[in-house]
# Entry
Amino acid sequence: MRKLRLASYWASACGGCDVAILDTNEHILDIAAVADIVFWPVAVDFKYSDVEAYDDRSIDVCLFHGAVRNSENEHLARLLRQKSEVLVAFGSCAVSGGIPALANFKRREDILNRVYRESPSTENPESVLPQPHFTAGDITLDLPDFYRRVYALDDIVPVDYYLPGCPPTPERIWEVFEVIVSGQLPPAGSTVGVADHSLCHECSRVKKEKKVKTFYRPHEIIPDRENCLLEQGLICLGPVTRGGCGARCIAANMACRGCYGPMPGIIDQGAKFISTLGSIIDEDRVEDAGAVIDRIVDPAGTFFRFSMAKSLLKGARQP
Amino acid sequence: MKRVTIDPITRLEGHGKIEIFLNDDGSVEDVYFQIPELRGFEKFVEGRPIEEVPRIVTRICGV
# Structure
């Protein structure tokens, strides 16, 4: 059998998805047995010019990590779409913006000012900001355009499969590889490496009536390990989040952070959690319910922690 | 002037690009190291509860 041609790329990402692939441990040898790596910046020294020289659709599978934050990310998204038969949005950033999309709550100019002018560790006496084009004599250098907000991969190009998680767990990654190698691909557009039930479904904690009198921050409570964390007053995104991760955070006595994205059929994970709150807060009077909500320090950043780029809000209003 | 572009720099976390300019006798005239990426953690951690910060900044580099 012909070996698969496999690419893995990071756009606006941290590299954690690449490490998660390596965390399949000895299975990486199984992957190497059936696939040739043709592009993988974290591990192998191919250049962008190599990818540009490949025939269109000659990469069998491209695992694309990271969000689209700047024009270079967009260029690579379009290039890899053109060169790949199957394009996978791999990890929360590519699927829905992930942590980088928390920047969508801020304005572009405020980000640039903070990073390059105001940060205490920055020395920038001429107060310059990165320029897309820089000329010195007869030399011109180019930097990518920093976009006004962060986009998910499918905002830019069509995506064949989605594999969420920050990062996806190695077990799920290996299962997806097995499916790819088998050639029995699911319908295009599928979310893979996930369960169709909520995280609550695979959480073994005792769940009673969801009624919450107050919310706690982590330093205010040591939650017990038997009962539902949400019922104990911790913001747990389990009810609106897909399972499939194996509830690892829950096992570490930490509430679900929502990285596996919304349940099937939910278009806005954060908005759905707001709806959840409406049904679990155990107060009859509006003011009392409001006081409970006020205990949540950063509702938007918490409920849309990994999904801001795909939320209905998209980001802050900018001039 | 001859231009040698190394793009991307590989086998490290993050994005980097090096442009080397050679003069007519082939020696290096100028080198530019560019970081073509920015996410802006310095700004978007502002306003977040402090307990979130260690769980956000771990996504600066996951390697």
Residues 2-60 of chain B form one domain. The mean pLDDT of chain B is 94. Chain B touches chain A at residues 1, 6-8, 10-15, 19, 21, 30, 32, 34, 36-40, 42-44, 46-49, 51-52, 55-56, 58-63 (CB under 8 Å). Residues 53-57 of chain B form the longest helix (5 residues).
